[in-house]
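Table S2 (continued). Query chain:
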Amino acid sequence: MYARPCDTIGRAGDHERDWHEGIQMATTEHAPSAVASPFGPTEVASYHRDGYVIARGLLSMREVLEIRRETTRLHDDHLDLPGCFHRSPVGEGADPLAAWPRMMHPHRQSAVLMDFLVHPRVGAALQALLGEAPIATQSMFYWKPPGARGQALHQDNFYLKVHPGTCIAAWAAIDPASQRNGALNVVPGSHAMDLFCPEEADPDVSFTREFVPVPAGLEAVPVDLDAGDVLFFGGNVIHGSEPNRTVGDFRRAFICHYVGESARELSRWYRPIYRFDGTEVEIGDATGGGPCGDVGAAGPH
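Corresponding output:
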């Protein structure tokens, strides 16, 4: 029998205390005038040094549950949601990802998830890291069910093709993420390198095709997260995940990509894009070849 995700918080520490704190935060968390960046100068410097930084508890427990419930509703209500996902009935087939595929651009299907794409606290964090106003380009939701393959090491801007500059990801843990259930690995320092032309990934351990080896002198490090933590990392950072080797733990994540307002080009797969006030932004299509010449990504990341 296939497992289904659990709606308990699963956060380290005092669960009851965290839940009540989440309820109290909900009265002010969406008021832009009340939002300050979670990052000070030390965290911003760390991001520019390593290419990534974590905002612990950026999403409240109430918000985590809201994302869980909304994505579960989309999943349970549809076998086929064009442009977002196509799935098999739960319990059919050998590959758990057939029943629990990632959702592409779920904010286009849900006002709730659109609100989280342009969440004020995420926006404040991005403003501090980018040094300019952020523009929202993409959302994804990963279920990562027990037994699911991981995603080989890769670089996001290979797909988004942002120019000038690069993109930035906000990777929100909706379940606790550990190395057992396939948490993310990142390669500190790789953000300062160019994009690499990927090699072929091992399909037995990765559901995606592209693989970027760790450059000489660098190493991949694990990033364990609690539900509600958000990992921010730059578009050139090499990152990926191993399979979920547990028998009953999902590793759900809501992942969004952003660019700075100074960006002038973006891959055509990411339209429309939005300011954090919800208004649409026009930007040019990416031109020219990437690190593989004229061969590039055939669709959104």
